[in-house]
Amino acid sequence: MAREKTAVRDKKITWKEIKRQKFLLIVAFFVTVYGFIFYYWPLTGWLMAFQDYKPAKGLLHSQFVGLEKFRFLFGDPEFLRVIRNTFCMGVLNLVTTTVMAILFAVLLNEIRSSIAKKTVQTISYLPHFLSWIIVTGILHDALSSTGIINDVLLRLGIIDQSINFFAHPKYFWPIVAFANCWKETGWNAIIYLAAITAIDPSLYEAASIDGANRLQKIRYITLPGIKPTIMILLLMNIGNVLNAGFEVQYLLGNGLVQSVSRTIDIYVLNWGISQNDFSLGTAAGIFKSAVSIALIVICNQVAKRAGEERLF
Amino acid sequence: MKKNKVKTTVGSKIFTVLNSLFMISFVLITLYPVLNTVAISFNDGIDAVRGGIYLWPRKFVLKNYQTVLAMENLIIGARITIARTVIGTLSSVAVNALLAYVVSRKRFLFKSQLSLFWVITMYVNGGLIPVFLLYRNLHLTGTFWVYVVPGMVSAWNMLVLRTYMLGLPDSLEESAQLDGAGYMTIFLRIISPLCKPVYATIVLFVAVGQWNSWFDAMLYNRMKTEYTTLQYELMKLLSSVMQQSGSAAAASERGSAAAAITPLSIRSAATVVTMLPIICLYPFLQRYFVTGLTIGGVKE
Description:
The structure holds two protein chains of two kinds. Chain A is mostly helical. Helices cover 73% and strands 1% of the residues of chain A. Chain A contains 16 helices and two strands. The longest helix of chain A is centred in the first third of the chain and has 33 residues, at 77-109. Helix content of chain B is 71%, strand content 0%. Chain B is globular.
């Protein structure tokens, strides 16, 4: 971040320099126009949240209603439930996927045979490359009344009648968390494995001489060694907690579990696209963005206080 | 690290055994559902509804595949998916690489402003509905281009490329400039050839995203069957299976009317067809995504 230093040099905007940088400037111009259209222009649509937006009248002529849409949102028990669902599933997913990825990375690192290590790792990436459509599809098969889970539970005598996992709200959040772990554990572990490789091997040697066993080495060398990576990834992901609630919930949810399955994104989709209430959908979207940005800023501050690496 | 002469203790052995068990169950849990789907896809449809198929088909048939490969909407979906993957990936990588090149030039006049302009887009976006209305106003909805144009620049991919380019020595650019090369020539002749590994990484990321996306097809081209995608067709098959799950009798009844084909068997076959290209390719691209993630994840 040597911004000051370069800024001084950048001040010299001469015709000669502009001519020299013609190619760069042309590219920058087109990409910026593109960015304005596709990323910044939609922000003007936020006005809709404060209007009773009618597509026929457009943004300029629709009637302003102030905060009425937001008042409606927070008076809607459905919206409050949707916030709870999004938040709880987001946190549950973040915690379980992080713990699984760290566990997997640490344990994989303990495998001595490099062929076995390579094979397990290659297999572990596989689900990441499958779409959520495929993942939810095969998960649905595994959990169906004739699927493997019921099969195993029946054989072990844990249950005496197959469970319809998708009919009971209490199973939904764990299923979503499991789906996320199944899909992303191997992938998320990549960064932790890279961090483990960067740990100084002499630390392990010294610990061996001191008579530390493998669990102690994990506890006192590996985990502290990857702590900064864990922290920064957690921080990056906390801002995304509310963004992580669409595909699985949309694909696996059904009428029986919708009290726990619907998330903010699904709410926006329902109101905005299916019911054509663009104003209400946008208001819900703004709420989500605002909370996300607040979370990112708070995390960044917390990180700064704690002396950890910051995001920006 | 080859200091295994240190005698292995009992505790260490127990650890090894437990760890191996953990890894074996991890692999089983990862692979089983995929292999099970493959087995079902080769099994007779009505027979599969009874359950009890694990890793091997009970009544082997190719009927499911014959049916799937003859379904017109799936053929169209496959064609569109291939087209969007190729066109979308090439254009996106080209544009991101150009942008990354521009913001990684030390002397570029608006270097920091342009970076900031794109970093902001990672955190602030208009949301579903304003974006939907924008695409409609631009007449992108109902066309193929809605799959390609909107996602062309991605700040995250651009930053990965930028980090890589910043790691290249400045002297390359300087000596080329002394030889009279302009910025375009430097990009095409000097920087790009050196960036092949990171280009490969971004190609992989974008291509997988394109291949797997279904939501845009559902949202923007729901009525346009000629622009359907493989994943969206798969999703429709999935919902037809879900509606019938639990009522195996209904499924097999319907199945017998349609000559031993059930939604489950069709969907399994379609799933295998859809994931096959990715499964065949990804093991060979490992080193590319590992580098890409390490560049992008640890410091953005």
